[in-house]
Amino acid sequence: MSGEHTSAPVAARVRRLEERLIEAGVVGEEQLDAALAAMLKGASPVNGARIVARAWVDEGFRARLLDDANAALPEVGLSMAGGIQEQRLKVVENTETAHHVIVCTLCSCYPIGLLGPSPSWYKSEAYRSRVVREPRAVLAEFGLELPADTAVTVWDSSAESRYLVLPRRPDGTAGMSEPELAALVTREGLIGTAAV
Amino acid sequence: MGELRAGERVRVRAGDPAGHTRVPRYVRGQIGRIVESQGSWALADEVAAGVAEPRVEPVYTVAFAAADLWGEGDHEVTVDLWESYIEPVRKDET
Lengths: 196, 94
Known about the structure:
The complex is a heterodimer of chains A (196) and B (94).
Chain A (H helix, E strand, L loop, with lengths): L6 H17 L5 H12 L4 H13 L1 H9 L1 H4 L15 E6 L4 E6 L8 H4 L9 H6 L4 H7 L9 E6 L4 E6 L11 H5 L4 H5 L5
Parallel strand pairs in A: 1-4, 2-3
Helix pairs in contact in A: 3-4
Chain B lengths: L8 E4 L18 E12 L1 H5 L7 E10 H5 L5 E7 L3 E3 L6
Antiparallel strand pairs in B: 1-2, 1-5, 2-3, 3-4
């Protein structure tokens, strides 16, 4: 673990680094702003929700998504190529008997392009250290009580892959359109700390 | 080391390197099971050290039983590990 990820000291350090780079003529202020804007352009949990809704209504897409998410994303107009290099995306599917939850114990790796900036608790030492050790207790604190016979897998993003949870489609949604289904999906559902 | 296949058992190297590494402490020395290969990526340790041409190695998803890691729990934890972080476990080894 690399210490507490509270945002204020990091933000100050990043700002000092930016100033040094600009002073040294390595990059310009406008270049930096443009790079940041490009990275965050369209980065929102709406993207993850669209992926999930499509998987719920299109069995073929669901199968392709679970098999090779990077190859399937262009079908919904998305990709993992927004950063320095294209990251690998792995989608893990919740079922009646299996539940998945995502963490990065070393730092705060997260599929920003599909989920937007991560919530502060995702970067907290408490979440990062506890969810790998006692996920059922942590999920219960989020309000998600899992049956004892549901198998729990915690995915620690320690290398170049990013993870996304495909939640179970809620009962009673048979008549809903794809956009209506997407509106049901929450950021927490995509991380695995909520059912949907 | 040849390509590792799903289901093969591997042990995570126990060393504590001086520089940056992506081996979480809680799996060092532990035995896990290969879930899948993620393709090949530049070794993070060498990238962080500024090596001009860092080694490119297979990265594997490796699953560990909570009971092995923590002495309790019925869940699994998967960790993404570069090839040089792990070594095959002999079949007769426990």
